[in-house]
Structure formats: structure tokens, C-alpha cells
């Protein structure tokens, strides 16, 4: 029920929805003063949440950095970076595909010995296709040995990623040195969740950063519709982080 509710209420954390709500209220209200206030508030909100510099700095402040270079037995790649291309029934990578590609790079460099893919299906209705199974087919296609791959294909969220992956590792290699590979903006929350599941020290490797380390003049003055999506992502993570900390 909580999983379904969270999916249904995600629209409440969309800044673009807030702007439209203000504009609709402004159009409906008959009081001239209130109408003006709502239009001004909508304009200010639009400027703040479409500003590339503001969201770039906020994300850069929040995202995790790289761990010290060392060797690990297993790299856990958290799902959510791919799905099924229904046109050719092959894997389709989304904007978070860097999670897998960085894991492959770490394996090729000898930093991780094995890759554990943790991801089931988070869809409410069509949940037959498991992400880990799709990734497994892809890894075999590009020549990664079966002995390198571990699969966990039942997780719907990060909490289940942690629980199921750590249980699998405990059976496979109890004393494994673990590196969790996920998006830089997801690491603070993932760390809270994983730390609840084990007393072992786990390191985290950031991928697909959304923060910015440099800016141009356009980032300060030209509205960017993509910034709305970045804020939505950050709000989702911050709310999830707060809830996970309270639950801890």
C-alpha cells in the first residue's frame, strides 16, 4: 500500500505543478490584489526552480564524492537505470545508465571482482520483466563471464535493494568487501538504508552527477525547463532521506 501511495503522490513534489496551481488560482480569483500576488509568486517560483545555477549548486552540495581507491570483492549496482525496449525486446538504458557502465569500468580496472545487479520491477501493473535479468543478458552479450555476475531481481526500491543484496552476499561471501555503485545524488539516502541492514563498512561510488562544478552566463539568467525535473528529483531524495532517518 505504501509503495502504491508513494507512486500516486509523486506529483505533489513537482515544482512545475506548484506554478500551474498558482496560475490557475490567479485566473479563478476575482480579487485583483490576490490575483496580482499569485501571479508574482508564480513568476518568482518559476525563476527560482528554472535557474540552472541555483539547482546546480544545490545538487553539487548534496552529492557524494569518490571514495579512496582500493580493491573490493563485490560491487552492488543499484537498479533503476534500464528497462525493456519493446520495439526489439532488448535492454534500453536511461539517463542513469552510467551506474552500470562505471561498474564495468571498475571491473575492467580490477577494482571490483564481481558485479551484483540489484533490480526487479517497480511498475505498478506491468511488473513481469525484471531489470536484473535484462542486464544479465546484456552482460553476457558483451562477454562478461558468468562467474563475475550476481543477480538480485526482486527489489522494487532501495530498501529492498539493500536487504536482498546483503542477504545474497552473506550466503555467497560473508566477509566480502562491498562497494555500492549508484547515482551521486542517491548515495546519501542509500548509505542510511544500507547502514541499517549491516554493521560492515560499505563504501559508495558515485555516478551520473547532476551537480555542476562550472557555469556560464546563461545558467544565471536563462530559464531551463530541465531544472524543474532536477528539483523534483532532489525533493524526492530529501523526503526519502528524512523518512529513512526517522525509521532508523
Task: Write a structural description.
With 248 residues, this protein is of the alpha/beta class. It folds into two domains: 12-62 and 218-247, no CATH class; 72-207, Rossmann fold, CATH 3.40.50.620. The chain is built from ten helices and seven strands. The chain has helices at residues 2-8, 15-28, 32-49, 52-62, 98-108, 131-141, 158-172, 187-197, 217-221, 225-247, and strands at residues 72-78, 82-85, 90-93, 112-118, 149-152, 178-183, 202-207. The strands form two sheets. The protein has a five-stranded parallel beta sheet, sandwiched between helices. A two-stranded antiparallel sheet has the order 2-3. Helix 2 (15-28) runs antiparallel to helix 3. The two termini are 20 Å apart.
Write down the Rg.
21 Å
Instruction: Briefly note the structural class of the backbone.
Output: alpha/beta
- Total individual domains: 2
Note the beta-strand portion: 15-25%
Overall geometric form:
elongated
The CATH class of the largest domain is identified as Alpha Beta
Spatial order of the strands forming the largest sheet:
5-4-1-6-7
Mean pLDDT value = 92
The helix count comes to: 10
Determine the fraction of residues in helical runs and give it as a percent range.
40-55%
Q: Could you state the order of secondary-structure elements as H and E?
A: HHHHEEEHEHEHEHEHH
Distance between the termini: 20 Å
The profile of the biggest β sheet is: 5 strands, parallel
Tell me how many strands there are: 7
CATH topology of the largest domain: Rossmann fold
Note poorly predicted spans.
Answer: none
